[in-house]
Write a structure and sequence with these properties.
Elements lengths: L6 E2 L10 E4 L11 E2 L4 E4 L2 E4 L11 E5 L5 E13 L6 E9 L2 E8 L4 E6 L5 E6 L8 E8 L2 E6 L2 E7 L7 E7 L1 E12 L16 E5 L2 E10 L3 E8 L8 E8 L4 E8 L6 E8 L4
Antiparallel strand pairs: 1-22, 2-16, 3-6, 4-5, 5-16, 6-15, 7-12, 7-16, 8-9, 8-15, 9-10, 10-11, 12-13, 13-14, 17-18, 18-21, 19-20, 19-22
């Protein structure tokens, strides 16, 4: 299980209740994910997926989470790394999936489009031309509110669709006809989402003088058997996180504390929690 929290020293923050994260920092997919697990592997903190039949017409290969998706926001970084010989070369979010029903919000590198289509009827509900480059990271997000679904790429509005055919179902990540698609920093948040931070207290962010200097101070409960990594970055969603301090809760719980001097530049922090298998 992995728990991640974000905050800036400029604004004391709290983690939004009902947020489930997976930053793919552990060596294997956590058990919450179901589906075509054999087609996905984690390498260097990135989830790597491949199509079922790279040299033949293939359906979606997907992993998914059985979460309430009637009202939620789903986001993930997607990178279409390598195409194959077919016209479909997609990395995608799968939304409200159940059996043959659901929606696919995809970066379609082969046709240079961003698209949303309904799985059960293969009907295209939204399509926008876009320059999608191989080996380029894009942040893809879908906000679902009942039948109304709003879609973004790199926080640019792609469009809004109202469709009541599939009101709920699993959410996931999919690859279609691509030799490789990478995924990172998957997040789903909503009022009825059960978060994966149930035994990690949100670090208490305080601005307090220490040694005549103002510091950001974190305190949180570290519970075994997990490793905790306090990291900092110049941006909230990126791949340049620097580990500032590590904690290992091996046999007993303890209150971990970390402080960092405030600088003039905006600085974001996160605490990663990963199983350490260290009993």
């Amino acid at each position: 299980m992995l728990a991640v929290v974000f905050c800036s020293f400029l604004l004391p923050g709290t983690i939004k209740a009902g947020t489930w994260n997976d930053h793919f920092a552990s060596a294997f997919l956590v058990s919450d994910w179901t589906g075509a697990r054999d087609a996905f592997r984690i390498q260097e903190g990135v989830l790597q997926g491949q199509s079922a039949l790279p040299l033949g017409v293939s359906p979606l290969n997907l992993v998914e989470l059985e979460l309430d998706s009637t009202q939620c926001s789903v986001g993930c970084w997607i990178n279409v790394v390598s195409p194959n010989l077919h016209v479909c070369t997609k990395g995608a979010l799968v939304l409200r999936h159940s059996g043959s029903s659901g929606y696919v919000f995809a970066l379609h590198e082969a046709t240079q489009t961003i698209e949303l289509y309904r799985l059960s009827t293969q009907e295209m509900l939204l399509r926008q031309p876009a320059k999608i480059e191989l080996r380029q990271w894009y942040y893809v997000r879908a906000d679902l509110h009942g039948p109304t679904m709003t879609f973004f790429v790199d926080e640019h509005l792609i469009g809004t669709v109202t469709d009541a055919l599939n009101p709920s179902g699993a959410v996931g990540l999919a690859v279609q006809d691509a030799d490789a698609v990478w995924f990172d920093d998957f997040t789903i948040a909503g009022p009825r989402i059960v978060g994966n931070v149930d035994d990690v207290a949100m670090p208490q962010l305080t601005l307090a003088p220490q040694d005549n200097q103002t510091n950001v101070v974190f305190r949180f409960l570290a519970t075994p058997p997990y490793d905790y990594f306090v990291q900092a970055s110049a941006e909230p969603f990126g791949h340049d996180w620097q580990t500032l301090r590590t904690f290992r809760a091996k046999l007993q719980s303890f209150e971990a504390e970390f402080s960092d001097p405030i600088t003039n530049s905006l600085r974001y922090y996160r605490v990663e929690k990963v199983p350490c298998y260290c009993r």
